[in-house]
Design a protein that fits this description.
The complex is a heterodimer of chains A (373) and B (372). Chain A is α/β, with parallel strands linked by helices and 373 residues long. Among the domains of chain A are: 71 residues, no CATH class; 76 residues, no CATH class. In chain A, 30% of the residues lie in helices and 18% in strands. In chain A, α4 packs across α5. Chain B has 372 residues and is α/β, with parallel strands linked by helices. In chain B, 30% of the residues lie in helices and 21% in strands. Chain B has twelve helices and twelve strands. In chain B, α4 packs parallel to α6, α5 crosses α6 and α6 packs parallel to α7. Chain B starts with 10 loop residues before the first strand and ends in a 36-residue tail after the last helix. Classes of the chains: A alpha/beta (373), B alpha/beta (372). At the A-B interface, α4, α7, α8, α9 and α10 of A face α6, α7, α8, α9 and α10 of B. The structure holds adenosine-5'-triphosphate (2 copies), iron/sulfur cluster (2 copies) and magnesium ion (2 copies). One magnesium ion (MG) binds next to α1 of chain A. The site of one iron/sulfur cluster (SF4) has 13 residues of chain B, from loops.
Amino acid sequence: MALLQVDDLSVTFARRGQRTVHAVDGVSFSVDAGEVVGLVGESGCGKSVTSLAIMGLLPKQPGLRVGGKAVFDGTDLLQLDDRSRRDIRGRDVAMIFQDPLSSLNPVIPIGLQVTEVLTRHRGMRGEAAKKEAADLLDRVGIPDPRRRLKEYPHQLSGGMRQRALIAMSVACQPRLLIADEPTTALDVTIQAQILELLKDLVRDSGTALVMITHDLGVVAGMCDTINVLYGGRVVETARRRPLFREPRHPYTVGLLGSVPCLDAGPGERLKPIPGSVRDLLAWPDGCAFAPRCARRIDECVGEPPELVLAHDGRSYRCLNPAPVPGTVPPWATGGRAATDPATDAPTAGAAAPAAADDATAGPVPAPREKEKP
Amino acid sequence: MTEEAGTESDILVEVRDLKVHFPIKRGILLDRVVGHVKAVDGVDLSIPRGKTYGLVGESGCGKSTLGRALLQLTPPTGGEVRFDGVELTTLPAGKLRTMRRRMQMIFQDPMSSLDPRQNIESILVEGLQTHGIGTDRDDRRRIIGETLDAVGLPRWALSRYPHEFSGGQRQRIGIARALVLGPELIVADEPVSALDVSIQAQVVNLLEELQDNLGLTYLFIAHDLAVVKHISDVVGVMYLGALVEEAPSDRLYSEPLHPYTRALMSAVPVPDPDVEDRRERILLAGDLPSPANPPAGCRFHTRCPWAQPTRCADERPALRDIGGSRVACHFAERIASGELRPHKVSVQIVRPEGEGGAPAVVSAPTEPGSYV
Ligand SMILES: Nc1ncnc2c1ncn2[C@@H]1O[C@H](COP(=O)(O)OP(=O)(O)OP(=O)(O)O)[C@@H](O)[C@H]1O
Ligand SMILES: Nc1ncnc2c1ncn2[C@@H]1O[C@H](COP(=O)(O)OP(=O)(O)OP(=O)(O)O)[C@@H](O)[C@H]1O
Ligand code: SF4
Ligand code: SF4
Ligand SMILES: [Mg+2]
Ligand SMILES: [Mg+2]
């Protein structure tokens, strides 16, 4: 049994006079002890709402409906009352946010905020708590920790604040840490420091980590398993290498084609996905990605595509997945693909097997064919 | 595209020793100048016609200020900016206005620079009228129609308002507004930073296509190194108001020479697990020092893993030519050859700017924060 098993999680926001928002629409994924699991996707795909729902931190507004399960070590977190949830939070499960300032209390010195956690969950007091707090700050790389304990969050730089927040999160050696875009607001050299710190913490303590990000580079560097979200659902799950080497879901293929590679040669055009995340089909009406998908076939619209389980813990939600390089693509046998086979032929050694050539709608100039060196 | 840069006239923009210092004011009437933020402090660069100069660096290093000073939107404190042979810093206001048409800017968040009450047509017409472009209404219509086609927006967009568009479309509107005037130079300040990756790629491709078709020259400012490297011919790396390295974009990645560039390149996450596992990270200690109080000597010496006991702390390195790159490091050759090895650097605390005292007004932390 996984440490955290999220099953068919759904979150809807209904407001009178407004369209109901299906922010999360059947998300399932699991996290094993000591594992780093990534949730990636573009803005609005439901990453933050998923994590807030698991933590029970969604704003208590009328019209909020949460369904499904999030079983942590045998307990369904979604069924807990506020008290027991608060007990688990901070002790067994902790969370780090993009903006550390909003998660730190601005009028309380950092030290007091850390010792509070220690007192609350580990019963530590006085000098012992202070010493442990200083050790924690030291461990996350804050210089001169004893002095820092007395400082307020606004006196620290963004990177130092994020470190302080991480120190608080790991104060009780939680078994699960959820990090929602922990480095998005930071500069790249500071991001590298924080990611390295998170990797060390996970390695040393065996804490499971859920890493939420829109940056494919970040997941490539640290996640064991990656879930790609689109329109509130997981559309592809794979181990890290297979996902990047042979993405199957056309959305994953499209994401990988959209990011420039640092080691690519000059003159290569990117291969964007046409349209925007606003062009969503509601899941009950078919594949949400269909309006933007270059591999769309007739069957994609009408009913939502089922999850296909492949070998090696891999799964994708697609009727016409990108072929794995070296195998016979579906169009060669059945000819079901809507795209032109000529543009779809896997190029030798290409990371993205099926060029997501945008023959479909969208005000986007057709990208040029790109041969990877 | 123009031929390889070489002769003088191929250079569209030439910047010499450009400085922008913002006074730090104190006192009740803010009448006392207690120091200066040296946002840009001596930058030399030239941009060949039809090429893209990429500018990277961390937050606060002065990229936007440099872009704005180049267009004279922020008056430079010192130095020269020549555009197509004309010195802009001493140009009378009237002449400068006519030059403006030839140099335009696009921004990170087009929403903040688009008037929400104006529809797209009037946003575009406004620019044409200000600069007296187009003979009559029909002529302006034609120009606007062609511009919309060029940026991939449908004609019906004209009667809509900015908030009715997605982020990517708004950025197309921002580009259309710049393009409608027929500029030669476009300063693009973080034009794709706020966009989703799939949309980011659309806009990057659009900018490249426009350059191919119209021969535009770009100053492309961004903190995303992969995007900058992708779109630029030459990349300049800024640190605390000055260039530390300038190189053709491939070379910057394959052979970074300045210690800061090396660290920056090694820190960029790459969406390839093999590269991620193989690469050696150079982790910098601590934060960027404040530009109000930059370190003496080499500005990078407080964080430089290669800093030497001589020269680094007291002699500011000039940009020097080293094998086709320009590098501001006293020891670049000896670092490249491997003779000098990196060492450990202790972290120095850097205070966030202008936030010395305790906050006067404090709002309670938002809900997520109260989790502990
Ligand atoms: N309190 C709320 N009320 C109504 N809708 C909401 C609320 N919170 C989030 N949503 C909607 O739910 C969807 C998913 O939002 P979420 O914040 O999870 O996206 P995300 O994947 O984290 O995106 P980002 O990368 O921008 O952080 C969005 O369409 C958002 O507008
Ligand atoms: N009008 C101004 N008055 C005073 N200081 C300013 C002004 N504009 C910028 N600065 C300061 O100048 C420095 C450089 O700012 P600038 O906006 O150019 O940085 P940047 O490299 O564009 O950063 P970012 O990546 O965050 O956009 C910063 O320290 C900033 O606070
Ligand atoms: S091929 Fe069909 S099911 Fe698969 S992503 Fe495209 S539209 Fe969705
Ligand atoms: S001059 Fe010295 S401190 Fe500056 S980058 Fe070179 S080695 Fe580092
Ligand atoms: Mg989010
Ligand atoms: Mg800026």
